[in-house]
Design goal:
The structure is a single chain. The chain is mainly alpha-helical and about 160 residues long. It has a domain at about 1-110: Arc Repressor Mutant, subunit A, CATH 1.10.10.10. About 75% of the residues lie in helices and about 5% in strands. The chain contains 6 helices and 2 strands, in the order H-H-H-H-E-E-H-H. Helix 2 crosses helix 4, helix 2 crosses helix 5 and helix 3 crosses helix 4. The chain is flat.
Length: about 160
């Protein structure tokens, strides 16, 4: 097998190239690509929590918390009522809307660079194929989680049987 034939490697290299492009376009701002993702998610899902934010950033709750705190300190988002009394929801502020519009403009320029390398049919095909790869991994993770849940239930049952 050649390195150029490994799908995961090629996906990672393409992702890194895309990130370098957007970082160049954000270079004169205090913002990062994750800030745009966070603001856009919060705009699309008002009241979402830090866990949801962390997942959208392909990370965890602590990453979501750090980004939320940074954006809140800049006045771009505010915390309010969450889905229950124990959580706080995240909401984009008017300043956040303004900053997001500027950030999206820069991201659209980076996106145009990426799309310029592909014919329109190739763009649609690439998005479809990427979705299939993502879904395959999500299915695998769901299967693994289900297996763990079954294994834990079996262990609990075995423990109950032994205790009796």
């Amino acid at each position: 097998m050649k390195l150029s034939e490994i799908i995961g490697y090629r996906l990672d290299m393409a992702r890194c190239a895309a990130l370098r492009s957007i970082y160049r376009l954000l270079g004169d701002t205090p913002y990062r690509p994750a800030d745009t993702t966070a603001l856009l998610l919060i705009k699309e899902r008002p009241g979402c929590d830090q866990t949801t934010l962390g997942r959208a950033l392909a990370a965890n709750r602590s990453v979501g918390m750090k980004i939320a705190m940074r954006l809140e300190e800049r006045g771009l988002l505010a915390r309010g009522a969450g889905r229950n009394r124990r959580t706080k929801g995240l909401y984009i502020t008017p300043l956040g809307e303004t900053v997001l519009a500027r950030l999206i403009d820069r991201h659209e320029r980076a996106e145009a660079r990426l799309r310029a390398a592909l014919d329109p049919g190739e763009q649609e095909l690439l998005l479809k194929l990427l979705g299939k790869i993502e879904q395959a991994v999500l299915d695998e993770e769901a299967e693994l989680a289900s297996g763990r849940a079954s294994q834990e239930a079996k262990s609990d049952t075995d423990g109950d049987t032994k205790a009796a």
